[in-house]
Design brief:
Blueprint: E1 15-20, E2 23-28
Antiparallel strand pairs: 1-2
């Protein structure tokens, strides 16, 4: 999942909690892109 966090919680690898369909889920702050880019723009 992707979302916005306040600047005070935006440090990389910090753990945050999110509400996903009414349930609390532990998540980690990560940089984008989440997967390596493997396409070629020619």
């Amino acid at each position: 999942a992707m979302g916005y966090v306040s600047a005070s919680h935006a440090a990389l690898d910090s753990e945050v909690w999110a509400l996903v369909r009414g349930k609390r889920v532990a998540m980690k702050v990560a940089k984008t892109p989440f997967v390596p880019q493997r396409y070629y723009r020619g």
